[in-house]
Amino acid sequence: MEELLVYRSVEISYNGIPAVRDINFTLKSGEILGIVGESGSGKSSLIRGALGILGQGGLVTQGEILYRDRNLPDLTEKELRKIRGAQIGMIFQDAGAALCPVRTIGSQIFESLSAHRKITRKESDTEALELFARLGFREGERILAGYPFELSGGMNQRVGIAMAMLLKPEILLADEPTSALDVSVQRQAVEELLLTRELYGTAMVLVTHNLGVVRAMADTVLVLKAGEAVEYGPAPQVLGRPRENYTKELLAAVPVLEKN
């Protein structure tokens, strides 16, 4: 499989203080990498660093993040804008907060698509409705005509996933995409992300606390602790036969419900 995204000795700092140190991994075409660890371990910083959205004070201070042999931290903002969305997509933890509350879903989808290619509003709506149907959305036309505040939090998150899918990026970076959802909607979101790979061959980096989601989706797993890599390898090995004590402790912390 082709190597799409390569992290080499990556360090990310905030206001000069390292938060992530010496991270190495490779994402291949069609692969899903799950990044797990405690809150504050640097999971979200790793994927945000690739797109230059670390926020004030955040900076990739060492190493390389290579996308098709181009070091992303070295690119200008103009060059990154061409890559964001169209080639490397992003799904945020709270997609509803990323949507404009005073514009319809359809108009925001059209704006997203037209930023990267020539398309009419009618073509945009048609593509969106076709994808909505594949994803099992009910009343697709009502969703397109609606505003984010008229939809549930779960539906806003599913719309956010669909918007990222419509651009057909090679890579999707998903930052806790299911954490704010109830169990039934989590399952829908997981199925939609897996469908993305099936339809378009999309590779993904999935950041999550939810080890159940990682078990359901990931081919490989990277375990972080306090900004450093603890374990990295195929998902069956890391989740089923972990080598490191921290990984064992992380897995043991998952509650198990027993029948009486």
Structure description:
Helix content is 40%, strand content 27%. The chain is of the alpha/beta class. Strand 7, helix 8 (183-200) and strand 8 (203-207) form a beta-alpha-beta unit. The radius of gyration is 18 Å and the shape is globular. The termini are far apart.
How would you write the strand order of the largest sheet? 6-7-8-3-9-10
List the total number of helices: 11
> Main sheet?
6 strands, mixed
What is the typical, i.e. mean, pLDDT? 90
Low-confidence stretches: none
Rg over C-alpha atoms, rounded to the nearest angstrom: 18 Å
Q: Structural class, from helix and strand content?
A: alpha/beta
Order of helices and strands: EEEHEEHEHHHHHEHEHEEHH
What percentage of amino acids are in beta strands?
A: 25-35%
Q: How much helix, percentage-wise, in residues?
A: 25-40%
Descriptive key words:
four-stranded antiparallel sheet; 10 strands; alpha/beta; 260 residues; six-stranded mixed sheet; globular; 40% helix
Write the layout of secondary structure elements.
Layout: E1 3-14, E2 17-28, E3 32-37, H1 43-51, E4 58-67, E5 70-71, H2 77-83, E6 88-91, H3 95-98, H4 105-114, H5 121-134, H6 140-145, H7 153-166, E7 171-175, H8 183-200, E8 203-207, H9 211-217, E9 220-225, E10 228-234, H10 235-240, H11 245-252
Parallel strand pairs: 3-8, 3-9, 6-7, 7-8
Antiparallel strand pairs: 1-2, 1-4, 4-5, 9-10
In short:
This protein is an alpha/beta fold. The protein has eleven helices and ten strands.
